[in-house]
Amino acid sequence: MKERFAKLLLGEDMSGGGKGVCTALAISNAITNLSASVFGELWKLEPLSPQRKLMWRREMDWLLCVSDSIVELKPSLQEFPGGGTFEVMVARPRSDLYVNLPALKKLDAMLLSILDSFHDSEFCYADRGVVISDNDGIEAFPSSSTSEWPSIRQEEKWWLPFPKVPPSGLSEDSRKRLQQCRDCTHQILKAAMAINSNVLAEMEIPNAYLKSLPKCGKDCLGEGMYRYLTADQFFPECLLDYLDQSSEYTTLEIANRVEASVHIWKKKILKKAFTTCKGWKVIMGWQS
Predict the structure, then answer these.
(1) Over 182-215, what HEC string results?
(2) Which InterPro entries does the record cross-reference, listed alphabetically (predicted)?
């Protein structure tokens, strides 16, 4: 644990050469890596193993304990033993952590409880392309419309397990429970995204990031995307057809490029507005 905290404090640069990232980014990367190791291969609706659940909770507590030292001073009234009150400054968690961190912990607990609810399901899983013959009355169905099982090479996501349900289908209660879990999970996602959006909206953009951006938004977007966005008639469908969205990584890269170009354009607009305002002040000063 000491080694992990040292890695966080050094910004993942264990050489101590000062080339590491900021502590906040190091903690964010550590949480992302932990999430990938625990949930990265969770392809089935089933409870987490006790070992993985313990690992997730223990290491998240380690990483989040850093927030105990992120405090702000707030005035508070305290009473004298003999009567009367006096005001003192007391430390409490920073306002955004005080509000959002308990909410995120609650959402995390809700997700784990949803997974735990699948301990006794009417369905099970089998590897794709493998037909299991048994006598329990459960039958596997291929995902394609043909009667034959698709080959692994023909499957886009061949690594995903294939769900098996009873020949008569799921019971009405099981269907309702699955729908409730789906709706609840969707609400959890919306709540987490709302918290993330609010936090990002309140954050100041670091000057180091702004200085690292190109001078022109066109350089961020690329010739093709810039041409589609600045056309006299903008058609979103044409732009989406042009963009490479074959994977999550390429889609994220596109979003980052658009976001960077927006920052560049905002910076130019603010600079232009400041120059115009300054010019008007000079003119008004001459007239007075």
Answers:
(1) HHHHHHHHHHHHHHHHHHHHHCCCCHHHHHHCCC
(2) PRONE_dom, RopGEF
Q: In what order do the strands lie in the sheet with 139-140?
A: 124-126, 162-165, 139-140
> Rounded to whole angstroms, how far apart are CA atoms 83 and 98?
31
| Domains of the chain: residue spans and CATH | 1-69 (no CATH), 209-288 (1.20.58.1310)
d(CA 99, CA 208): 28
For residues 20 and 13, is the Cβ–Cβ distance under 8 A?
A: yes
- Residue 267: half-sphere exposure toward Cβ, Cα within 13 Å: 17
> Who's near 114: CB < 8 A, 6+ residues apart?
181, 184, 185
The beta-strand segments (E) located in 19-140 are: 71-79, 85-93, 124-126, 139-140
